[in-house]
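As a representative case, the lines below give one protein's residues and fold tokens.
***
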Amino acid sequence: MKMYNSFITIVGIITHDEFLLKSFISKTQNILKENFEDFEIILINNGVIFDVDSTLKDLKYIQQDIRILNLSTSIDLNNAIVAGLDNANGDYVIVMDTDLSDDPDMITELYKKAQENHDIVYIRLKERKLPFVKMLLFRLFYYIMRKYSNLQIDLNMSDYRIISRRALNAVLQVRDKLRYMKGIYSFVGYKTSYIEIDSSLQSVSKKPTSYTQLFRTAISAITSFADIANKLLFYIFCGSLIFCAFAIVNALLVKLKGFDIFGNPAVQVQGWTFMMVFLSIMFTINSVILYLFSIFLFSINQEIKDRPLYILESIKRLQDSKSSTNDGSPPN
């Protein structure tokens, strides 16, 4: 079997299943050992409920450097993955889930595809199988991103991908506090391709993403990459101007001619209902505008604080059982 001389780094966030974590390490190491001369595995502990050290201390099949990055507190997954990317040393870095929902057998296929002059190669599902409501929200989100941003993001794109060192260096230069990793991968602009697989090949072990997490990710993506809010505010502004113009013309006609804009006879004192409707509509429009402003102000506030994307509590090396601590994060 051909051995590739590239240095491969695997980066994944530890899930809440101890058995799957052990199975992931075992299977991934075997595949890497059979195909690559040098590799490392970086696992991010983003506040799992079990003791990772106790779970993995009895592993007898560690064949290469495995590092556990223990974050000091649970954070957004898009930020947590940056901790692994910052510490990756490989010529190529593969980002994947550790619950075996991303098949380790595809590692070599991703690498081969990357050798065809591609810097980023992702796994694409032939069909994304989701509940009706969630699928509807997914389609709406990707429609907004395609129409109101310069990014071309595939609806069936998964997070499982390989990234070349030069593309990774560009990705790590983007230190947005509210991150949408798929958008950042597209933003850096390096040549990208994909490998399409049947959705049934994905393990059913993958935990569904909550609506709350999806909403946060969508807000981060839209405020960071799309200009829909600016266009929406412009349309609301134009609509309110037209409505106000009609209201003024209607008021003048009632006062001067005795009939409204639709030609119906009217008496001037009948303006109370119209005024209430008008004020209600204006209040609603102002509320929408203020809410949209609040989203962008929150994003600006997060950026100007310049807080680290993550804080490392400790780094555990399973290979030699030596650990080192880090009270901060790499420069941002």
Observations:
- The mean pLDDT is 79.
- The radius of gyration is 26 Å.
